[in-house]
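It would be a great kindness if you could assist me with a short task in structural biology. The full record is reproduced below for your convenience:
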Amino acid sequence: MKDKKKIYTDVFYYGSETDWKRVINHGRTLIRFKKVKDYQKQLDKSFKRIIEHRNYLFYEIFNQEPDNNIIFPVHIKRITENICGKENSIKRYTDIHPIDILKMNETLKKSISINTINSSSRILHILIDIHLSPKILINKYSVTRQLYEQISLLIKQQYYKSIIHPGEMVGPVSAQSIGEPATQMTLNTFHFAGVSAKSNVTRGIPRLRELLHVTKNIKAPSDTIYLHREYAVDKNKAQFIKNKLEFTRFRDIVLTCKIYYEPNNNSTLVEEDVGLVKLYKMFKDFENEDIEFIPWIIRFTFDKEK
């Protein structure tokens, strides 16, 4: 139990021993934070609320069966990463302190409700307290006030967009939501009007089937290349690097390919390769390994300019 409590304190809790100069790297923000007299009480109260959320989920929602996933239409962690970047990927000067975040979280929770009688938003409030915890936002995402406002706005938009009326036929709507785009994807797969070169990327129903079935061997595998920050934020530099990346096949750089019969392993009949064979023989003498001799040699001539 102590180990679990330590995990929660490491992730969510700012204790009295916290070195605030290392946490808050913006001078004016640190001064504003120090002027809040009862900041430690508010932080303790916030952490106590996290523990209460944990007990509520564990004993009442999951029936004492641990589960790390809560299915909810608003994916707060994904929203945060899309706006702030991956965890610990970017370090910024944060102009917002933990008490500011707690107050803004409360404002966000009050602004999200279905009606005045019953807000029906307890799970969302729990997710806000967890994923928008001050320690997570500051330590892992280096959040700023502007970024937090973007996160808050997107959370509200996705929440109100997901609300449905009682009795809504969600099954047919879901089927239509998949079927209609899939039809368009099929059309886009086979018709390339105005496109000069057909793309090799899998589209349409085949691609949708790969996603739904989580196919291991996809037809057109791709790779994502992440650039250093100095190149990622500059469109011209990123475009320059993109132009340098090429899909090179062996036949693109080979001028000729010939097969020779070499009866002697220590010499060659090709005059151009005499020096290369001597160099190879020098390294071969150091290895002292018995290698089966094959008299047939494949000789490639490469295009040095490419």
Observations:
- Strands lie at 254-261, 296-302.
- The chain is about 55% helix and 5% strand.
- The radius of gyration is 31 Å.
